[in-house]
Write a structure and sequence with these properties.
The protein folds into two domains: about 15-75, Winged helix-like DNA-binding domain superfamily/Winged helix DNA-binding domain (Arc Repressor Mutant, subunit A); about 90-270, Rossmann fold (3-Layer(aba) Sandwich). It contains eleven helices and 15 strands. The protein has helices at about 15-30, 35-45, 50-60, 75-80, 90-95, 95-110, 125-130, 145-155, 175-180, 205-215, 255-265, and strands at about 35, 65, 70-75, 115-120, 140, 155-160, 165, 170-175, 185-190, 195, 200-205, 220-225, 235-240, 245-250, 270. It is globular and about 60 Å long. The two termini are about 30 Å apart.
């Protein structure tokens, strides 16, 4: 998600103005999910150093969490409870299982021999990992500990990005994981989502949405894998606009509004089994 800098209240050196600025910064991050330091600096007419000091204070107070280049709202258990409820992995894994298997089979054909592939968190990417980890020629990268364990058991070449563990998803996130991902270049990124609309793709968790953006930025081919239950749904965080990826693999033709938006964005839709 890329935020567009807008004009905000002028920032001065006075104590009151600084306090107001920090309150407004916290409000913007709550509304948008993520804000970069550069965008905040442009918005408030201050230096990035000033913004970083503001973010450090807000982080210390537990209002937000600083990330590489900006900040997200604090992903604490309390904060997650306020988000759109994310079903547990095991619960999601049994939902639409046949559709996810069909999607995984179709998506697997998009990875060529000896390519570097990154697999994001999600039940559909997990279904895809069951297939891809059988190909010992692939180099698989992931921030998903479940996929890492699956690949290791299969004898695949698996590289796990280090970071802070999100127990509910067994995923790794945070500045360390992002820094490692930014040093790599992937042939294909397979990205799972919780919702797709005419506006873009969405996810439940702020910290995982940030990882998805980085994976998309660092890949030659960007593929979203999602079953039809995701069409028209909405979730907490916008990950990216539709034109940020090239291919959608699903098991059913998207509804007319979303299909038109995908076509306008230049996204190829692959319907598994069609």
């Amino acid at each position: 998600m890329t935020e567009t800098p807008r004009q905000g209240p002028p920032a001065g050196g006075g104590r009151l103005i600084g306090r107001v600025r920090k309150e407004r910064i916290a409000q913007l991050i709550r509304e948008r999910g993520f804000m970069s330091s550069a965008a905040l600096a442009a918005m408030f007419g201050v230096s990035e150093m000033t913004v970083r000091r503001d973010l450090a204070e807000l982080d210390l107070r537990g209002v937000i969490q600083r990330t590489h280049g900006g900040a997200v709202i604090d992903p604490s258990p309390e904060g997650e409870a306020d988000a759109a409820a994310e079903p547990f992995f095991d619960e999601r894994n049994v939902q639409n299982r046949d559709a996810k298997t069909a999607i995984a089979q179709a998506a697997a054909a998009l990875a060529g021999p000896a390519q570097a592939v990154v697999l994001d968190v999600g039940t559909t990417t997990y279904a895809l990992a069951k297939i891809l980890t059988q190909d010992e020629r692939l180099r698989i990268f992931t921030n998903n500990l479940r996929i890492s364990a699956l690949g290791t058991a299969a004898g695949a070449e698996v590289h796990t990005l280090g970071g802070r563990v999100r127990p509910s998803e067994m995923s790794l996130y945070g500045p360390m994981a992002i820094e490692q991902a930014r040093r790599l270049w992937f042939d294909v990124a397979f990205i799972g989502v919780s919702a797709i609309s005419e506006m873009g793709i969405y996810d439940y968790a702020l910290e995982e949405a940030e990882m998805k953006r980085v994976f998309a930025e660092r890949a030659t081919k960007r593929v979203v894998v999602a079953d039809s239950s995701k069409f028209g749904a909405r979730s907490l965080v916008e990950v990216a606009a539709l034109d940020r990826f090239e291919i959608l693999v699903t098991e059913r033709t998207p509804p007319s509004g979303i299909a038109e938006a995908l076509e306008q964005a230049g996204v190829q839709v692959i319907v598994a089994g069609a």
